[in-house]
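Subject: for your reference before the review

Hello V.,

The reviewers asked for a structural picture of the protein, and I figured it would be easier to keep everything in one thread rather than splitting it across files. Below is the amino acid sequence we used in the manuscript, unchanged from the supplementary table.
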Amino acid sequence: TVEALPLDLFTRARESPDPETVSIQKVCAHTVSSAYGYAIYIRNARGWPRRERPAFETLCAAEPAGVRPLFLEPLRLTEESVEGLIDKNEVLEPLRFQVRWGPTYDPEMLIEHAIVHLLRHRRQIERWPR
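And here is what came back from the structure prediction:
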C-alpha cells in the first residue's frame, strides 16, 4: 500500500491534533513504533531485560520504499518475545498486563491487536485524501 505512493503524498502534512497522524509518513512511523512497543510489553511481562524502542524520529522513512525495512527489527523482536510461549491459559494468564490505553492483554491477545493495528492504519492510508 505504501510503496506505491508518490513521495509528495507520503510526506504531505495535514492538520491533525495528533502529531503521529499529520502525514502518511508519520502514520507509518507510528505503526513501526507500535510494533516495537508491543514486543516490549511482552518482554516485560516475561521478566526479560528492558528494551527501549527507538526514537520516533528515527522511524520516519524518507520515502515510501523505506517503510518496509523499518519493520524488520521489531518483527524479529516480536518473534523472539513470543518464542516458546504456548497457547494455554496456565501459561498466558500469569503474563497478563495492562497497556497504557487501558485494556488488559496476554501476549496472544496483544499479537492479535498488533495485527489489527496494522490493518487499521492500512485502511487509513488507503482512504487518505489524494
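For the response letter, the relevant points are probably these. The CA atoms of residues 44 and 50 lie 7 Å apart. The longest strand covers residues 97-98.

Happy to draft the paragraph if you're swamped.

O.
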